[in-house]
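Reviewers asked in the last cycle whether our approach scales beyond single polypeptides. To address this, we selected a multi-component target totalling 967 residues and predicted its structure end to end. The input consisted of the following lines:
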Amino acid sequence: MTDRIVGLFLLAISIWYGVTAGDYEASFGDPLGPAAFPIMLSVPAAILSLTMIIRPDEEPAWVTGKPLLLQVGAVSLLLAYAGFLEVLGFPLATFIAVALLGRILRSSWPKSIASAAIMSAFLFLAFDKLLGLPLPLLPEFVS
Amino acid sequence: MSKLSKLFGAAVLWTSLSVAGATAAECIAPADPGGGWDFTCRTIGKMLFDQKLVDAPVQVTNMPGGVGAVAYAKVMSSRADDAELMVATSTVGVTQIAQGKYPADTSVMRWVAMLGTDVGVIVVPKDSDFKTLDDLVAALKEDPSALAVAGSSGAGGWDHIRLLMLAQAAGLSGDEYKQIRWVQFDGGGPAVTQMIGGQVQAVSTDLGEIAGFVESGDIRILAALSDERIPAFPDSPTAKEQGLDVTGYNWRGFYTGGEVSDEGYNAWVERLQKLYDTDDWKETAKGNGLVPVWRGGAEFEAYVKDQSEQMRKISQEIGVIK
Amino acid sequence: MDMLSALAQGFAVAITPTNLALALFGCFAGTLIGALPGLGPVNGVAILIPLAFSLGLEPTSALIMLSCIYYGCMYGGRISSIMLNIPGDEPAIMTTLDGYPMARAGKASEALAISAVASFIGATFATIGLTLFAPLLAKAAIYFGPADYFALYVMAFATIGGITSVNPFKTLLAAFIGLMIASVGLDPATGTARYTAGSFHLYDGFDPIVAIVGLFAISEVLVYLERVHQGQEKMVPLGRALPRFKDMMAGGWANLRGSVIGFVCGILPGAGASLGAFMSYIAEQRWSAKDGRFGEGDPRGIAAPEAGNNAASGGALIPMLTLGVPGSGTTAVMLALLISLNIQPGPLLFDRQPDLVWGLIAALYIANIALLIMNIPMIGLFTRMLSMPQWVLMPFVVMVSFLGVYSISHSTFDLFVMVGFGVMGYILRMLGISLVPVILGLLLGADMENNLRRALSISNGDFQILFSSPIALTLYAITATMLGLAFLLAFRSRRRARATAG
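The resulting structure, written as structure tokens, was:
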């Protein structure tokens, strides 16, 4: 069933991809233009999506319950990290993210916090100081 | 609660450890490492420090995206008053602005200075039948689609526009010069090697990247798009000498945020001018195929505004933008 | 004779204590940078250029150090492919296919050893090729036009369906997903913005590194969370710390076959190491189809792509040194370095800077030997990595990946995209859709389109140009043969299966 749903989704994407490409035109440029190649891709992609609908593989074993919750938690945590990295500054944001990620990966609080402290300090020093790749240090509300 | 306080404590300790030494000059290269803008930032940044014009090494930050549009938007929105910041740009950036591909026009930034310029050239393989620019133009006049010409920019980019400006000056009509076949490669070097391999008949691009091929004799310069002959190649005539009044420079320079104080802005202009006056810069510029040219402060502001306006007109005339 | 004396001169340059020390440092740093996901050779070399400046190095010394970092990265990329199923850099994606299954079977040290030997053979082969034939090969590469590049990419994608043993339709679909993702951004030929939803952030399209890290590293975290809960996460048997000599050589002739194919791909400007690794793998799979267990930990499935990507990176130095044209992203950065050291790259480099060129070539020989010697004892270190608790290892890998991306682009947007790719990667994996072809599509798609369009610009829209060059025709013939062979084999094995069933 999943194969069918995903196949349908990819079919829709392929069609949308091809149709959208039709709108791309340059008043100026090469003979093929920006639309041709995407359209050339969309047709086989749509056919291949159809094979997923017509001949689906066995149903994968999707997780439910707690591990699903943990997965959702991990993804939200990483998204939040991306969003708060510049707001909180690298060391603080990384500290929080690593500590919580450690918890999600079933470690205890003290261990997670210890590894978070070491890791955020180490990575900041390694990248910002040693490699000279500037990272935001302080939270925005401080600086 | 104790965990939270631990966390907070660690954070405070950590930040207090490394607050010092925060404000250093920064140069944003709005491209990936290795490109021309990256080079501008790194070279000038290094020289500013070597000449003791700044206290700490200039920090180079790469911010690629949209041919400079991402960095432009970022500076506009969140660092408009940061006097420690400058951003590398060139004629290519101004072309993008003129064609409306940046989030705003040139007025939202303060344009600091340009320190040198690359020169556009039209080149052909050494054994090409085209001996002069006239030969090439004559062939185009007879049949604009007879030639495939390559460069490092896409259709409507600076390399292409320079070629069309020549065609226009030679009297080809818009409908005619639109038929000239244009092939884009990822840089002047690949364009020239493909030309040597016989795929295209001529290349229009900046001299800097391909000077080695001219020196080795693999290719010939039909026309330099400069006011005077290029010092390194005094035997190569300019387009002007051959009766087509077209110049096509690609300058290298910097802008800073639009809300930077006069004081901060003038400090940058002054620093860069001091750098420009050193022999060291002249030497470096020459080694990189650049001609040292100085325009700074108000003069540069006016120049950029002018160029952007001019570029917009050309782009409109040749139909790149509506 | 001329060349030998030039090479001897080169060794005299390379073997000074400073240059030797820099070469060794470069090898070590390169291996580490290559092993860390999100940090590849391009970033590694770019990051360390300022270091070369601040040390005030001679141009030759700087170039030696950076080339050793480059070679080191190519050695290092395989490590996380094998140990974590996360490619350390772009060309190492093929190594996940057989490397990781082998490690999970408790043969991590063997897999690392096979790949170290393969890297050595590939890189040495390329360095010898560089020494003997550089100017000649560069001349040949010039005649490889856009239509020929297009034929090369057609060959790559026509054969992609066979790289995994599962449903070939899904593998092909994965490649198309990658190709579709590759077309996002400003179209280089006309500047048209495609599929960007008006966002400047998408103007340059999706960075392959962002996609690789997301698809592999972040989805690995999600897979782990699932396994650990179902109690499926058994401790991986560690196996022996150091492999036996016999195991190291298990790659056999695949090492050499991979080297040749990779080297050829490397010489072509633009094609690069990823294509080299991929073509080597595909060819090896066809060559050894009779007794192959590809995808399940076949030693030749590790040796061929590793030899291939290392040979390709050596090959990529040829257009860089002889023409001043970058053969890959990394050589583009190295070219920029040459320029900023006031050295004009181009066809005259060999004549004008013989010390620099030959010193570099000599340093590459030294680097190869140093890397092999360095990498064998390091195997023990890396296999112990697997026994590190996951709550340390995984956050570390994820954070380094985030940092590798952020520190170069300074865009939190890229980080969001990365997490998005992670979720996508997890779903694709659950459905049995291989991630490798997605990345290949993304890596090669833009070049495939650009070359098609270049060819048609040159011919003013006449499609005949695609079939008018002998090189292109040869490539199409090889493609047809490989496809025919694949169908024949599939037909035979099905008949055999039916016979045994009957």
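The first strand of chain B starts at residue 26 and ends at 29. We regard this as preliminary and will revisit it once experimental data from Aim 1 are available.
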